[in-house]
Design brief:
2 copies of one chain form a homodimer. Chain A has 433 residues and is an alpha/beta fold. Chain A is built from 14 helices and 17 strands. In chain A, the strands form 2 sheets. In chain A, strands 7, 8, 9, 10, 11, 12, 13, 14, 15, 16 and 17 form an 11-stranded mixed beta sheet that branches. Chain A has a 6-stranded parallel beta sheet with strand order 3-2-1-4-5-6, sandwiched between helices. At the A-B interface, helix 1, helix 2, helix 6, strand 12 and helix 12 of A face helix 1, helix 2, helix 6, strand 12 and helix 12 of B.
């Protein structure tokens, strides 16, 4: 066996630079952990002449992927270029030439994870992706090792730092969505085109990955229902606060009777829930298991060095496996094909806000309708509006099936006393300690 | 290879019963994860005739440890009897007969962990102890795998559920220490003799274990400074709240310039710190790394099934290692001999409360003294007392060396205007997001 391990790095952006820095600065620690030297041999970049913040010799850089993928001395490929097709091709090539792969690419793993993992298993190489969810938070290992013996029931995650930053500013400082987004962009927490973040797509990819591991199923990205935060109004956040809730973009993966639901949506969380105090750009994943009860993993969900620690945790795992001769043998395939719940099988509490004619008996028409449908209320807030003859009513239901709630919404809209259903949101975490 | 793995269980108390339940109820999941059947073959109990809550055939029980330790069909011993000497003897015997060991015994690991781990390595067996710290929270794997590539600087833990429950009741409901302790005893969160919990000894054991893994050093239990919560007054908690702090029993392990400090003491935490919202019997471990920044692991720190999930995570790891043929090869020995910091090398912020003669110029004598010693104040609270001519002053210092602060306390007591130094506590988490 060689006295060192050679890494080929695909990409030298934010995360790639962090990986190089960690390998340079923590070399002694790494050697102690894995028992050999860890070298970066070649780095794939688009432009080898570009000025970079990071100190790295020109000779390490190449714009030809084959310099890495065809180099027999390279044991391990770290993929941090992002995107789908190019990354996928490189990864397949690496796997087929017997190289282990570590990736931070959530888009790719969410879309093509199962087939890539299968290719890795067939070629007896490791494919690890801890950095694809929750940045520096070791949540994938938490699920597949730490909580492996439990039957997990629910995973709720604040898995997108951009939106959590925006919501924190809206919630705590009363900033508008637009102002908070602008601030996030200035600070580098949001991209120029923020769509993938604010519309919940980024979070959806991470939730698909989490749901697969938590429930040992083959959830696909299409199975994830997604709603973003770009239409949120401060008014709802304000009413939420009055009722004891904090608005968060929450990914929920839930398993009941071997059926799953996976969704991402703006959600009112009880302020006593552990996720409610996760602020700014931080991420956290809350995991509920039959035996363990409630756990939560908290930390930085993005950033150069934090994400690089997750990449390097995988690199250490690969090298340890190399030295033990067990690469490609440590991943457990999913146990179940995922079956999605129908709306009758999905339960939750809901907040909704409506405008009601301010006339005698109007409110009792609402309560009558809900009573008929067997839906009871946990909280009610009523405010007169300065818009003529309207009252604004906010209601939080007790737990109800999604189907039942959707029917109620439809019937509400048909009631003459109901002028408008302004908004509705899922509510979570009531009864949390 | 056998088509099953046989476990011998030492002890059938709270955690042992949880382990049996998990193995019974999650057998299919376990088989999927490890690829073979997982059997409990024999259980060591003091009294085989005792009535038990758990359903287990009489034939599984034995009061003779050799029925387990000498049985060649038993691959893995799970030690959950607790205590030191007996557990240690059994464990050594198991290791010497080539059996892997999983333990939840923090006392034993804190005291004899290094020598037991060495014995395990020599005999090429695994010795895992995830359940010894933080109950169901997979914190040891978090440190030794998830954050393995980082250089960790600080670990702060709420690692004792009993004291956290008591402090939550005191802080939120204004209960006295005695009343809160009584309530904790009624609920089964505190033992009849609560000394080990309330005096911080239990937390100290866990902090020794955490410090070893976080800093790759051989910290011993004697290196841990300990102060409990039995002398806390509600008055200080109340002043702390006014200043934006929550009182917690915090274990702190910190590394600077390759020197460590490990301590457990009642500490005022800024309410914005992630640990401040950890309530009741819950535990959490906050980890700060050079690269990753701030992370936190939260969950149930005790209890039958939660702790059993941690035990079973270790069992799964042992069996996976067995099937890969790599037992006894996955543990990394500490890299450093631990060197403790001197009081000059230990820095922190401090809260202190004193009674001052209510006369002109008294306060300026205090500020003068601190000015001379180069200690500045972050917060000051002054309240007139109804005890004749006294004023009560609460001061929070900026960061200062422990030596400097201790000198200040001594000199304070010598000032004629200072009638009494009532209390002082460490302050942490200022500047947390």
């Amino acid at each position: 066996m060689k006295s060192y391990v050679s890494i080929g790095l695909l990409g030298l952006g934010t995360v790639g630079s962090g990986v190089v820095q960690l390998i340079q600065n923590h070399q002694e620690e790494l050697q102690h952990q894995v028992g050999c030297e860890v070298r970066v041999k070649s780095i794939l970049v688009r432009n080898t002449d570009k000025e970079r913040d990071i100190q790295i010799g020109q000779t390490f850089l190449t714009s030809n992927p084959d310099d890495i993928l065809q180099d027999p001395d390279i044991d391990l490929v770290v993929e941090v270029i992002g995107g789908i097709e190019e990354a996928r091709e490189h990864m397949i090539k690496a796997i087929q030439s017997g190289k282990h792969v570590v990736t931070a690419n959530k888009d790719l793993i969410a879309l093509h994870g199962p087939e890539l993992l299968e290719a890795a298993a067939q070629n007896q190489v490791d494919l690890f992706y801890e950095a694809s969810v929750g940045g520096g938070i070791p949540i994938l290992r938490g699920l597949s090792e730490g909580l492996v013996s439990d039957r997990l029931k629910k995973v709720m995650g604040i898995v997108n730092g951009t939106t959590n930053y925006i919501l924190t500013k809206m919630d705590e400082e009363g900033q508008s969505y637009e102002a908070a987004l602008k601030k996030a962009q200035e600070l580098g927490f949001a991209e120029a085109d923020p769509t993938a973040d604010v519309e919940g797509l980024d979070a959806a990819r991470k939730m698909a990955i989490l749901a697969r591991l938590a429930f040992s199923t083959n959830v696909s990205l299409d199975d994830v229902e997604v709603e973003g935060i770009s239409n949120l109004s401060l008014q709802d956040l304000h009413y939420g606060q009055k009722l004891g809730y904090t608005m968060k973009l929450i990914g929920i993966a839930q398993l009941d009777d071997q059926k799953v639901e996976v969704s991402v949506q703006p959600t009112f969380l009880a302020t006593s829930h552990p996720l409610a105090s996760v602020k700014n750009e931080y991420n956290a994943i809350y995991v509920k298991g039959e035996a363990v009860g409630e756990t939560m993993f908290y930390g930085p969900g993005a950033g150069s060095l934090p994400t690089a620690t997750a990449v390097m945790a995988d690199v250490v795992a690969v090298i340890r496996n190399m030295r033990l001769g067990v690469n490609g043998k440590t991943v457990v395939a999913p146990r179940f094909k995922s079956v999605l719940k129908s709306p009758q099988e999905r339960y939750g509490q809901f907040y909704f806000r409506l405008h009601l004619a301010d006339e005698v008996g109007a409110f009792s028409k609402i309560t009558g309708l809900f009573n008929e449908l067997g839906i009871s209320f946990e909280k009610i807030l009523q405010t007169p509006l300065n818009k003529g003859e309207l009252a604004e009513i906010i209601i939080v239901t007790h737990t109800v099936s999604l189907e039942n709630f959707q029917e109620a919404l439809m019937k509400l809209r048909d009631l003459p006393v109901v002028k408008d259903v302004i908004s509705y949101y899922r509510v979570e975490g009531n009864g949390a300690k």
